[in-house]
Amino acid sequence: MTLKPLRKMLSFMLLILIQASTVLNCYAFCSSTHPRILRTFSFCDNGRHGRSYCVNSDTPSAAEEVANADGTGEKAFNTKEISNIGRIFDPAVQKGSVNSGLLKKYPFETNVIISSSMKSTADLIAQIFVAGTPLDLIDWRRNFLFFVFGFVYNGFFRYFYAVKIFDRIFDVDKFTSQSWAQKLKDWPGIRAMCAQTALDQIFSVIVFLPTFYVLNSIIFSGSTEPLFWMRDGLSNCAENLAKDASDIVKIWVPVDLVIFSVPLYLRLHLTSFFGFMFAIYFSAVRGGH
Asked: What residue intervals traverse the membrane (predicted)?
């Protein structure tokens, strides 16, 4: 009886630590894995050029310098116009003066850490706030399951196909940098967006679900036989496949259509947000033994 308050306090402290770590890691990751979003200034309102440029918000006088460069920006900065958006990025920013540090040097490693901690936090939220589990009765093996699942699937596999494969197969930058009016006319871009969405659903069904159920068997079955883990996990996966696949398609098809159509810097935020929310839902539905 004397250990119960101490155990409850330690559980609460660990919960706060995990949540704080997740928030800080996500903030650092999102703020350092893409170029700084620079403030946009419009000039040449008389329509001679009809363009607007991004200049570094840390230098307030930069807008005036650009405007004085006859509307081109070429004399004020060594810059590059990107597509029809007319954005200008300082090359020093693109080369890493802003993105320097461990998060840029080790994107894969930081992604693994963030993915696993986010899945763990999502499960804690599902246990405490959805299921109403007291802090001293938290199922830490279940939480460890989601930590390992985030480590294996999101940290390794999803990073590999979403970052390494999709960017090579599809012309992501061209489509996502266009205005919505132009996107609706870009049929090759729309087909690529739909193809990415379809592939993501396929990977979710044939990799996401089996991985989760096999890991569940490894942690909860008590067996030390890999063949049993595979049989038990795949059997449970097949039993729940219709419901799980239906949930994935209903939720992720509309979400992916948005994610694969927005600029890359927004894709990171949207993927993290919806992935976190889905992890809470999936933990509440399938987090039991």
From this structure: 144-161, 202-220, 264-284
Q: Is the pTM value of this prediction over 0.70?
A: no
Low-confidence ranges of the chain (pLDDT < 50): 1-3, 23, 25, 27-67, 70, 73-100
Instruction: Calculate the dihedral angle through the C-alpha atoms of 23, 29, 32, 36, rounding to the nearest 10 degrees.
Output: -70
What DSSP line would sit under 225-245, residue for residue?
-HHHHHHHHHHHHHHHHHHHH
Instruction: Give the Cα separation of 248 and 205 in Å (integer).
Output: 8
Residues paired with residue 54 on neighbouring β-strands, in sequence order: 40
The residue among 283, 287, 89, 280 whose CA lies nearest residue 177 is 89
Task: Report residue 158 as tokens.
Answer: 């999803």
- In the 8-state DSSP scheme, what is residue 39? E
Q: Which of 142, 116, 105 is nearest to 18 (CA)?
A: 116
Longest CA–CA span in the chain (Å) reads 80
Q: What is the domain count for the chain? A: 2
**Distances from the Cα of 118 to the Cαs of 20, 110, 132, 151, in angstroms?**
11, 12, 20, 10
Both 211 and 273 in a single domain? yes
